[in-house]
């Protein structure tokens, strides 16, 4: 089920910065068209889009609020119009329990955007509802528009927080535990329909999500080893390109493939 990404097309949410931007760049560098869906583009993302305006690999930006299901549907419509058949989808947009949707700053508090009458947490809308809905839309697109017979891939970004309790960020940890379970539950799509659903599970990544928030940096042990977005993106590309993917958590080999990315030693296992 190996897939060369050259000449293929992808949708990557949250690719205006961080890991998803690095993944979009890896895809473009290997000849894959990419629709970048995000609220906005950081300067480095704008440079990437400006660089890839024409063949052999095009990048386009679609402003998207991933909590809005109509905008997610529009994202697929635009990608199909621009590229035709989509081969790779990465619902990568996520947040690390920000102050505006944080368990320890409850709905209705001064800094929270979660309303006491709203019935929802923004962190969960972004981190788990959006990837689930995007996966549904991706599967529907794959089944309707599969003309080439090539394998299809959905690559999620979970976290080591999805394998451990995290007292400081319980909503975030809950969202990543849920995403792990969702990915494992999608395992049969690979053999039944040729749609591989995978995930990477990074530790602390050197992205603006951390580096621009001093309050979060206080949570990082000075001995912790940063993993770069580029390293995680390399693993994500491997998940798409290699023939076989095996489970590396516990003894559930083959049941919902993942590659934990806790540090450079784990990256070497590829």
Automatic annotation (TrEMBL):
Single annotated GO MF: oxidoreductase activity, acting on the CH-OH group of donors, NAD or NADP as acceptor
The keyword S-adenosyl-L-methionine belongs to this UniProt entry's keyword annotation: no
Alphabetical UniProt keywords: NADP, Oxidoreductase
An example Gene Ontology CC term for this record: cytoplasm
InterPro entries hit by this protein: NAD(P)-bd_dom_sf, Sc_DH/Rdtase_CS, SDR_fam
Region annotated Disordered, chain positions: 249-270
DNA-binding found in the keyword field: no
Matches recorded under Pfam families: adh_short (PF00106)
Family the entry assigns: Belongs to the short-chain dehydrogenases/reductases (SDR) family.
The name this protein goes by in its record: Short-chain dehydrogenase/reductase SDR
Annotated source species: Penicillium alfredii
Source organism phylogeny: Eukaryota, Fungi, Dikarya, Ascomycota, Pezizomycotina
């Amino acid at each position: 089920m190996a897939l060369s990404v050259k000449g293929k097309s992808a949708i990557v949410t949250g690719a205006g910065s961080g890991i998803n931007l690095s993944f979009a760049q890896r895809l473009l560098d290997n000849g894959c068209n990419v629709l970048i869906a995000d609220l906005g583009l950081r300067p480095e993302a704008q440079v990437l889009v400006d660089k890839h305006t024409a063949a052999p690999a095009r990048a386009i930006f679609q402003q998207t609020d991933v909590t809005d299901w109509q905008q997610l549907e529009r994202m697929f419509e635009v990608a199909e119009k621009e590229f035709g058949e989509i081969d790779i989808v990465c619902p990568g947009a996520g947040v690390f329990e920000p102050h505006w949707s944080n368990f320890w700053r409850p709905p209705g508090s001064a800094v929270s955007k979660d309303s006491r009458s709203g019935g929802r947490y923004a962190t969960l809308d972004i981190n788990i509802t959006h990837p689930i809905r995007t996966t549904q839309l991706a599967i529907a697109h794959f089944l309707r528009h599969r003309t080439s017979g090539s394998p299809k891939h959905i690559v999620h970004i979970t976290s080591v927080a999805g394998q451990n309790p995290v007292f400081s960020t319980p909503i975030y940890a809950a969202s990543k535990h849920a995403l792990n379970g969702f990915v494992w539950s999608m395992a049969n799509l690979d053999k039944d329909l040729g749609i591989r659903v995978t995930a990477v599970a990074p530790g602390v990544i050197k992205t603006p999500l951390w580096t621009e928030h001093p309050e979060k940096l206080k949570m990082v042990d000075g001995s912790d080893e940063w993993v770069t977005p580029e390293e995680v993106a390399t693993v994500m590309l491997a998940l798409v390109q290699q023939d076989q993917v095996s489970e590396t958590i516990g003894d559930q080999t083959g049941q919902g493939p993942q590659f934990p990315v806790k540090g450079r030693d784990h990256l070497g296992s590829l």
